[in-house]
Amino acid sequence: MGATIPEPSHPDDLATLAGQVERISFTDPVSHFTVARLKTKGRPDLVTVVGPLTGIQEGEQLRLKGRWAVHPRFGEQFQVLWWTSVVPATAAGIQKYLGSGFIHGIGPELAARLVKQFGPQTLDIIDNYPQRLQEVPGIGSKRAAQIQAAWETQKDIREVMLFLQEHGVSVAYATKIYKQYGAQAIQIVSDNPYQLATEVYGIGFLTADRLAARLNIDRQSPARLAAGLLYSLDQLAKQGHVYAPRKLLITKAQELLESEVPALEAALESQVQEGHLVIERLEGGETGIYRKPFFVAETGIAQLLARLRAGAGLERPLALDQALAWAQQRRRLRLSAEQAQAVTTALTEKVLVITGGPGTGKTTIISCITDIYRSLGARVTLLAPTGRAAKRLSEATGSEASTIHRCLEFSPQTGGFRRNAGDPLKTDVVVVDEVSMVDTILMYHLLKALPAVARLILVGDAHQLPSVGPGNVLKDLLDSGVIPVVQLREIYRQARQSLIVINAHRINQGQFPIIPPQAQSADFFFLEIDDPEILRDRLLEIVAHRLPRRYGFNPVRDIQVLTPMHRGVVGVQNLNQELQKQINQNPVIWQGGGRMFKLHDKIMQLRNNYDKEVFNGDIGLVSGYDAENNLLRVNFEGRQVSYEPAEWDEISLAYAVSVHKAQGNEFPAVVIALTTHHYLMLQRNLIYTAITRGKRLVVLLGSKKALSMAIRNDRPLKRYSGLAARLRQSLTGSGSKSP
User: Fold this and answer.
1) Which domains does the chain have, with CATH numbers?
2) Are 431 and 369 in contact (CB under 8 A)?
């Protein structure tokens, strides 16, 4: 059942309504504002109800109080001010209720069979006469026992669920809370609801704060101030900051909590004493506030790189000239002077960074380095941040490559990586491609897993967007001035024929791209469109029809739409809905809660899930739906992964994705939407990153003004990180100050 919001203090002047939820048209995941269609007695048509209907399910019976209103565009609506959920009494209502997924193992198909057999008595049969479930065709004693156990489990958590729902917590969140805390959930939530913000995925500070208000917890309580501080710091981390300047953090927390500075300072000191935060005086006299894991990671990276550089390496029995000649002969190619320098430096340095834009031969260099080291009997490990990047690296080099996460072997038992200082990787040389994507935490775990004798070669494009996670590791390595670097500037002869490569470098130099006539055969096109709605319609036509007809691209597998923002007419959310309608004509296999999945929908994983071994940014295709167990199945590069309803917030449609989410991936064709509505995100490194995702074709749609704004804006948003200074301190003994 869904949540219940408090009844208004003066309900007499409100209209009442009762009915069954037939369809959920829209739900905002942040505000929980929901638009639903209700079937009510005495009305032939469905009624539109709008309001904070947190977690309602299709098939639920609702009692509501509110006011009737007429929307200028959508007509008559019932604006909900109070509502509660009622267990359905009709067969149709029970079928939708059971099929909504709130009982593990009962999906729409099984719900239909149960209701067909028992009608309105279905819930009573499950509750009191479970042995009769075997009367349903296809249900034997084992299946009946499973249904009974699932129902009993649901009964066991009813007290917890009821408590949480009475305080405005949705079914999905209540289920997660119960999974986390079990029978202790009520006590934990009552004592400190802010604990949920850090321990239950999907429940942030704002949700916990609303719950605390319903529980009448003092708004100046130490628990609230501490949680608000951590939330403010976490919000800054989402912007890429490893630490926050003390004044900035206090200001952000003060805006959020409406508290006095002395109280926040006291809460800050308390969090330091409890070991959650670290305060350190940084280069330039700035005071930085770190989350403890970020502090450990940042200091650890500097220390581990210093150890790595100081350690002994492999003996080099071959002369460099001989090694270069052999590698070029083997690959049947000729390296340029700077490419040869990159290879020879990789043979002499323990730690090396190689940077360069598209077409400069980074992958060729990796291949030569790998060949030479393996000819010496060295064990070489090739890594990349994403599955697609690893697959591309493997195909280009002819050697096996892995993602960093899989190489480090996550352990669900310990919650950490199996490969670490106590059980390091069995390797002599580690090469990491697309290193601009690697954030502070992941780099730390990788370095911990390297044996002291290993060589580390980091390859990437310094002009791309930084990692989604906190930190700017590649930039900090370059800025430190203490790590050997080879910069590749010369474009390969073959790549000079590509407008994608040429224009990427032009944009990186602050120049407007070369735009060929549309009739001319090229791999880069710009269509000037100022109006967002016209742009959307043109984009849909290009992706669904023009590119598949002209180039033979599969619109799902080969074409990727990129856009800077999530909201708006040409934002990620709207484009995904429109593209799903246009290019996927397969049947709908699940629909509810304002979401819909079709067979072979393109899906992206939104967070790291180590248990399933799928990671933030992984792209897959919906391969099926298990109606019996209510599981959605997704194929990630040949691996089948199942999701239960409580996990569906971890995935989203991926016909269109943000440029940040596309990092580390290449696609045969990329279609980019760019308007002045995206002005907050218009930066040179963003458009550069977007264009370099396209392998064979890039189509840019938008206004010249927006493109010019992006090209001119070469000031990337600052990320607070102390890594460069720590590297100078660890490797030269200067550059940072004591805590």
Assistant:
1) 1-86 (2.40.50.140), 161-288 (1.10.10.2220), 298-490 (3.40.50.300), 511-712 (3.40.50.300)
2) yes
Distance of CA 610 to the CA centre of its chain: 13
Of 600, 576, 574, 604, nearest to 587 (Cα)? 600
CA atoms within 13 A on the CB side of 612: 22
Alpha-carbon gap, residue 470 to 120, rounded angstroms? 54
d(C-alpha 653, C-alpha 605), whole Å: 9
**Which is nearest to 564 in space by CA: 461, 434, 465?**
465
- Taking the C-alpha atoms of residue 370 and residue 430, their distance in angstroms, rounded to an integer, is 10
* CB 681 within 8 Å of CB 565: yes
pLDDT digits (tens, 9 = 90+) for 26-78: 876 555 678 899 999 888 889 999 987 866 777 778 888 889 988 887 889 99
Element at 527 (helix H, strand E): strand 524-528
Distance CA(717)–CA(596), nearest Å, equals 36
**Cα 83 to Cα 698: distance, rounded to the nearest angstrom:** 50
Which residues, including other chains, have CB under 8 Å from residue 307's CB and lie 6 or more apart?
A: 452
Sorted by sequence, the CB contacts under 8 Å of residue 275 that are 6+ apart come out as 292
Q: What is the pLDDT of residue 28?
A: 67
Compute the mean pLDDT over every residue in the chain, rounded to the nearest whole number. Answer: 88
pLDDT of residue 118: 93
> 67-76 long-range contacts, Cβ below 8 Å, gap at least 24?
67/14, 67/15, 68/15, 74/48, 75/48, 76/47, 76/48
Residues 6+ apart with CB under 8 A from 38: 17, 19, 20, 21, 22, 46, 47, 48, 49, 62, 78
Contact between 525 and 719 under an 8 Å Cβ cutoff? The reply is no
- Count of positions (residues) in the chain: 739
What DSSP designation does 614 have? B
Provide the H-helix boundaries in 349-498: 362-375, 387-397, 404-408, 440-448, 473-480
Calpha distance 436→722 (Å, rounded): 17
Give 386 or 487, the one with higher predicted confidence: 487
Q: How far apart are CA 51 and CA 15, in angstroms?
A: 14
Q: What is the pLDDT of residue 93?
A: 73
Contact 278, 295 (CB under 8 A): yes
Question: Could you tell me the CA-to-CA distances from 254 to 176, 242, 265 in Å, in that order?
Answer: 30, 20, 10
Cβ atoms of 197 and 205 within 8 Å: the answer is: yes
Q: How far is CA 541 from the centre of its chain?
A: 28
pLDDT computed for residue 736 by the predictor: 43
The residue written with tokens 């009608």 in the block is 119
How many other β-carbons are positioned within 10 Å of the β-carbon of residue 4?
Answer: 19
Residue 558, both tokens? 């080969």
Closest CA to 131 of 112, 119, 139: 139
Q: Crossing angle of helices 362-375/387-397, nearest 10°?
A: 70
- Gap between the Cα atoms of 371 and 364, Å rounded: 11
Three-state SS for 380-412 is: EEEEECCHHHHHHHHHHHCCCEEEHHHHHCEEC
**Burial of residue 566 (number of CB atoms within 10 Å: 0-12, 13-18, 19+):** middle
For the cut 60, the answer to whether the pLDDT of residue 499 exceeds it is yes
- Which of the 8 DSSP states describes residue 360? S
